[in-house]
Amino acid sequence: MPFPHTPTSTLQRRVRIVHLTGPTFDALAAGDLSTANTTSPVPMSDYFAGLDWRSVWRMRTEQVRQDPDDAAWVTGVIWDDDRQLAVGRAGYHGPPDAEGMVEIGYAVDPAHRRRGYARAALEALLQRARDEVAVRTIRVTISPDNTASYALARIFQ
Question: How many angstroms separate the CA atoms of 5 and 101, rounded?
Fold first, then answer.
């Protein structure tokens, strides 16, 4: 189920975050893109089933297995509505915790970077968090060497 918001970035990217299900997480964790695409609401590229992302998918598989409601919060697909294309992943690490905190995570496929997708995804995530009464704090954790994400996050401070 996609987030209810479809904001645009300065480059007019219309994206939404499309949620995945346990079976899709399972297939991606195993590197099985063919099976993942039979259970996913949107088609994904080889990038989604690559080695770099499998640990994320394994973590989400276990998380959703323990609490199926987490699927509505955790990592999904950044979907470009205009191009009908999966361009990355984005979501929260989980639903709001006891203090009302959510942590945002996102990554854009290198083939689609520097085109406004990270900004559009971050805007969608921030808007959803602002609209959720249970959310009081939004956290974004960025790797120290990711200067592009640091610059993007500073825009929204």
Answer: 20
Per-residue pLDDT, averaged over 11-16, amounts to: 79
List Cβ neighbours of 148 (8 Å cut-off, separation of 6 or more): 113, 114, 118
How many CB atoms neighbour CB 48 within 10 A? 24
Sheet holding 137-140, edge to edge: 15-18, 76-80, 85-92, 101-108, 137-140
Q: Is the pTM of this model over 0.70?
A: yes
Cα 73 from Cα 128, distance rounded (Å): 10
Give me 90's structure tokens: 């984005």
40-52, pLDDT tens digit by residue?
999 999 999 999 9
- Start-to-end Cα distance in the chain: 28
